[in-house]
Structures are given as structure tokens and as C-alpha cells.
UPF0102 protein E1742_16510 (Pseudoduganella plicata), 115 residues
Amino acid sequence: MSRTAQQDKGQQGEDAALVHLTRQGLKLVERNFRCAGGELDLIMRDGDCLVFVEVRGRRSMRFGGAAASITPAKQRRLVHAAQTFLLRYPRLPPCRFDVIAIDAGSIEWLKNVMS
């Protein structure tokens, strides 16, 4: 199946986020985890902590930028996907949700954005 230009941009953003987080010492666990009702862009390990990373990109800061584009509905889907992913663990590890916001090519790492 061929990909759209939008999908290619999303892939490039995830690639940039993965490089950024890896340089900060995080380790990739899984990429593009999908389940019924949700998707997680990157799942990383930061020491003992499992980190669910949402990657958002915008060409400009108009309308609040990349981070502001994560709606309450999107947050619910992220939580659902994380809960589904965690079913594979007999004991739950410490977890957090991070965002990589890419605005006009500038990367910002927002840690522990949802509780």
C-alpha cells in the first residue's frame, strides 16, 4: 500500500522524535503499537519507567501548536492504548505519558503530561 504525503511527514516526525529521545538515553520498546480504539507512536524505557510518547507536528504555532492539538478525546485513546499494552505485564511498571511537539521543525520534549 502506498503512503500519503501526510503519513510520510508523520513518519519523519516519529523518526526525529526517536533520535531525540535515544540521544537522551531512552530505549525503544515498541513503535506504532495499535489496538482497537487507539495507537501509541513510541513506547520507550527511561530507566525503570515505561514511557508512552505521542509525537505531534505542526508547521507553525498558529492555533496553539503541536502540543495543543492533543484533544481530550485523543488523550482517552492514548490511555486506552496504554492500558491495552500493559496487559502483557504481570506486574505494572512505573509509567508516564510524554509528548514530543515539533513546531516548525523545533523539537520540544514535554514529560509526564497526563496523570
Remarks:
- The chain has one domain: 5-109.
- The first helix runs from residue 5 to 23.
- Strands lie at 27-35, 38-46, 49-58, 95-103, 106-114.
- The chain has a mean pLDDT of 89.
